[in-house]
Structures are given as structure tokens and as C-alpha cells.
Design brief:
The chain has 295 residues and is α+β, with helices and mostly antiparallel strands. 54% of the residues lie in helices and 15% in strands. It has ten helices and seven strands. The protein has a five-stranded antiparallel β-sheet with strand order 4-3-7-6-5, with helices on both faces. Strands 1-2 form a two-stranded antiparallel ribbon. Helix 6 runs antiparallel to helix 10 and helix 7 crosses helix 9. The protein is globular, with a radius of gyration of 33 Å. The termini are far apart.
Length: 295
């Protein structure tokens, strides 16, 4: 009897088709598993390294350049420092101006704006030293009637971060954010005596070109402040004004801030063993104790 070749052919091919289907299902499962594994790895990677908004990173390159410039930067300078075309830099700067993160001075240079100051002050409050100092500052104000301010180290030197006015108006208004000179202010002299030399030297040279911490006159100021634990200044920044300042130290004995009283020279007793100096010294020690400094 002749063989039915067509039927035989179908009979042979059917198992092959079934095997192909099984293989396809296996491949699909493997592909799905691989995709799930890849997705899981991507999620893990995102947790370890969060996704970033590149345009913000680019924009804040401009802000950092402006923040590091003592006198601000022009559009031309911003472009040159960042390597960004002026037209593109102008768009970023305009956005930051509208947000208050930047501002422009009379010369048209870009500087940090009021919102940048607000952010900085908020960060300082969260760091603790300002909050811890406020009560002691009010006690000094009540006991002496002098203006009181707290300065910390900023990128450009000792910077006032908190202040209380005295009972008498003084001819010079010192605002929060004001940067004090190292050599001629009471607060600056405290930083000169207690801050790290590597931070001081660039600011000192900017203030007085060619000056060195080892210079005889500078070394004498440092020695005097350390000897009495207090810095003083009378008529050096503004004629008729005087100030005394004490260091505020943390648990490691490092300088955190300078606590200062300010008034007219006629009203402020500049003696380091006088009543005002004693009140100031006690307040600085109290703040230091709250920061963990051991007696």
C-alpha cells in the first residue's frame, strides 16, 4: 500500500511546530525576566544616584562664580568664567534675578540677592549657633544698653549674621551680611587670633596687599587678643565708634563666632577688666558652653 506522504509530512511537522511554540514561550519568559531585572537594577541605581536636573546644575555654576567674587561679576565676566555664551548666561541670570537669588549693583554687576541672604541665614539658624546666641545677646543688650552683634566666618571674612540695636543710635548702621575687616574691627581681630591661618591669609592679603600673618604688626595684634581673650577697636572703622569682641568656641575649642558690643566711644568702657567687658565675656562663655565647650 502506498505511503501517504502528505499525511506523513504533516505528522512530522506538527511536533516541530509545537516545539517552536514552547521555545517561543520560554524566550518570552526569559525576556520578561531580563526586563524586570533591568528595571530593578535601574531603580536601585536611581536610589543610589538620584536623577538630576542638568539645567539647574548649569545655572548654579553661574551663582557659584558670582558668590566667590568679592565685588560681583559683569555679564562678560560671568560668560568668561563659566565658558557659557553671553546670550545663554543672560537667560539664567535673568531668571535668578526674578527669584531674588541674584541682584545687580549700580555698576550693573551681578551679586547675590536678598533671597540668597535669606537662605544663608536660615542655614545658620538651623546650624544652631545663632539660636543659641540670641538669648545671651538680649541679656547683654539689657545689661549694657550697647548694640550687640554676632559674626561668623563667611567666604569673604567675618560676617554679621545677627544684631540687636543699642538704646542710643550710633552714626554708623551695621547691617546683617556686613563683612568686617580683620585688622581694624574688634570682631575681625578675634577671628585673626583664633581662626585657621589657611582661611585668614587670603582675606588678609585682599584687605591689605602683601600683608602676612607673620608680619610684626599682625602678630602683635594676635598676641594681644589671645592674651586677654578679647579684641577691641576704637575709631578704626568709623570715627567715634568703639567695640569689644569675645570668641565663641565649640566643643573642640574651635572658633564658631565672635560676640561683639558696639557703641560710641564716649559710652563704651574699653577696659578689658571693665563692667561691659565682663558682661560680654560671660555671655560668650555661656554660648560656648551650650555649644559643648568644656570649662
Amino acid at each position: 500500500m502506498p505511503r501517504n506522504t502528505d499525511a506523513d509530512s504533516l505528522a512530522v511537522k506538527a511536533p516541530a511546530k509545537s516545539a517552536a511554540g514552547a521555545s517561543s514561550k520560554t524566550a518570552a519568559k526569559a525576556s520578561a525576566k531580563a526586563a524586570a531585572t533591568a528595571a530593578s537594577k535601574a531603580a536601585d541605581a536611581e536610589v543610589r544616584s538620584p536623577r538630576r536636573i542638568q539645567s539647574l546644575e548649569i545655572g548654579f555654576r553661574l551663582v557659584r562664580e558670582i558668590e566667590s567674587a568679592p565685588r560681583g561679576l559683569s555679564l562678560k565676566d560671568v560668560s568668561a568664567h563659566t565658558g557659557m555664551p553671553r546670550s545663554k548666561a543672560h537667560l539664567y541670570l535673568g531668571t535668578f534675578l526674578s527669584l531674588g537669588l541674584l541682584a545687580r549693583d549700580g555698576a550693573g554687576n551681578y551679586r547675590l540677592g536678598p533671597y540668597a541672604l535669606q537662605i544663608g541665614l536660615s542655614a545658620l539658624r538651623q546650624s544652631g549657633v545663632v539660636d543659641l546666641a540670641e538669648e545671651a545677646m538680649r541679656e547683654v543688650q539689657d545689661a549694657t544698653a550697647h548694640a550687640v552683634h554676632l559674626a561668623i566666618w563667611g567666604n569673604h571674612g567675618p560676617t554679621i549674621v545677627c544684631k540687636l540695636d543699642g538704646r542710643m543710635k550710633v552714626p554708623m548702621s551695621i547691617q546683617v551680611g556686613y563683612v568686617l575687616p580683620l585688622l581694624t574691627s574688634a570682631s575681625g581681630r578675634v577671628f585673626l587670633a583664633y581662626e585657621y591661618p589657611q582661611l585668614l591669609q587670603p582675606i588678609l592679603e585682599r584687605e591689605q596687599p602683601g600683608a602676612k600673618l607673620a608680619d610684626k604688626a599682625v602678630a602683635a595684634v594676635i598676641k594681644d587678643v589671645r592674651k586677654v581673650g578679647m579684641g577691641g577697636s576704637s575709631g578704626r572703622i568709623y570715627e567715634g565708634l568703639a567695640a569689644l569682641s569675645c570668641p565663641v568656641l565649640n566643643h573642640r575649642g574651635e572658633l564658631c563666632a565672635a560676640l561683639t558690643i558696639l557703641d560710641t566711644a564716649a559710652l563704651l568702657d574699653m577696659r578689658v577688666d571693665g563692667k561691659s567687658a565682663a558682661i560680654l565675656r560671660k555671655a560668650a562663655e555661656e554660648i560656648s558652653t551650650r555649644l559643648g565647650k568644656l570649662a
